[in-house]
Amino acid sequence: MSAAPGDPATAETRALFDALLTGKTDVALALLQGPGAAQLAHAGPAGFSSLHAAVVGRLKDVGAASQLLELGATPTPALGGLPCPFAGKNGRIPPRTQQLLTLLLQHGANCLSVAPNSWSFGPRPQSFLRRYEQTGLASHLLAYLEAQRTAGTLRLGGVAEARELVQVAQLARHCTLLAHALHSWGRRLAAEPAAGQLAPEDAALLGQLLRYALELPAAKAIPLVRAMLASGLPLLACTPAPERARLLARAALHSNAVRRALPPLLHAAGCPLTMETLLLAIRELAPVALAALLALGRPAVDSRPLHHDYSCPIHALLRRIVSRSQSVPGPCAGTRGAWERRQAIRVLETLLAAGYRPTVYRDQALPSFLLRGSTRVLPAFDPFDFHHLDSLDERLVFLARGGTWTPATHHLWPDAFKAAARILLLAASSAGVKPAAEAAPGGSSSKRRRRGRGAAKARPRFQHGWLAALPAGAVMHILKLSALPMSAWL
Fold this sequence. Notes:
Elements: H1 8-22, H2 25-32, H3 37-40, H4 50-56, H5 62-70, H6 75-79, H7 95-106, H8 125-132, H9 137-151, H10 159-172, H11 175-191, H12 200-207, H13 209-213, H14 218-230, H15 235-238, H16 241-252, H17 256-269, H18 275-283, H19 287-294, H20 313-327, H21 330-353, E1 361-365, E2 377-381, H22 394-400, H23 415-429, H24 436-439, H25 445-458, H26 466-469, H27 472-483
Antiparallel strand pairs: 1-2
Helix pairs in contact: 1-2, 1-4, 2-5, 4-5, 5-7, 8-9, 8-10, 10-11, 11-14, 14-17, 16-17, 16-18, 18-19, 18-20, 19-21, 20-21, 21-22
């Protein structure tokens, strides 16, 4: 509305504006019931609307704001004028602020397109969450948006609104809204090829979303990652290369449900399976996660040691155990140390079953992490010569060197295997011995026949059978086959 300074409409507008700011509710309502009320709903000094004044005024006039909205005032700009801070005492939202927010949202205020103003803080929903997360205002906004999404009326006007909702939903861990925003963003980019060039800040935002999703519980992580990969957004392309290589390991190290569902999905989408990915699972002593990764492929071992670790997964495992044993004093290890030894054997057996063997490096200088201070190239470099073998479990070194069960190495196996082997050998050695009732002399022939018939019924079916017929070498072979994997007997 444009009017000269002396125009009565301008005077009425100023009067309404002053009444709303100073809390003179009666004067404001009288002006809003007059003949020029419809014009007053859209005009104000210096371009500010009367609805702004009702929102930021001393009394936060809910009645006047409601009347202005009924007269056609635009609600979205006024949303940015809600007072800061929103929280009252003890972190609670003042009731009038809550009522004004609800009123503006009910009249169609778009909380995703609130523009900052020069005369107020103009917080956006993301600011609500970051600065006033404990007030309940953020959850109120998200509940409103979720209700719109459920009803099918949540329409995002463009990339800017989709980006805003992505940031808000991520911060609040609201997965359904996040998936909706990503889907809308992807459709917008597909419909507008010119918009396909992402700004650096957008690429940075998208590049950390998959890692964020893998930090959620399984019930949220699985559907969210699926929605992300189906959105059409270049999430993996925006993810930094080092983090991209870790995504598979993060999924494999997650819960059983995520481990089964997401690594194949991420790998098919373009997440590379590298030796660094395997090393992450090895350092965590996670044999189940390692097996899930090896089901996707078998990365080749680099012919050179990595700058921070061995490229050979078996030597990387041994080095990890040595480092751990040296950093944790013996009395402090306790049960944790026993658990780590069992896990290390399981990891080693998983690697051996996948075909990995200890690497001997050729024509290489000692890696920097050995801290030998020499750059001389060695014709052959065997990491076994540099492991602190006295810090390693004897069984682990034995298996890593390719050891198998023999009578000479029987002492290395767990007690459970030794007990089973003892039972088998005793059974094999006594399988051909006749029962005492059958072998005992004396007594009448009729009594011996009766005892014999009773013993025949009581004897196991194969009392004189297969164990006695097997040669000793076959029994030893059975023991050798039963000995591995050693972890089954731990």
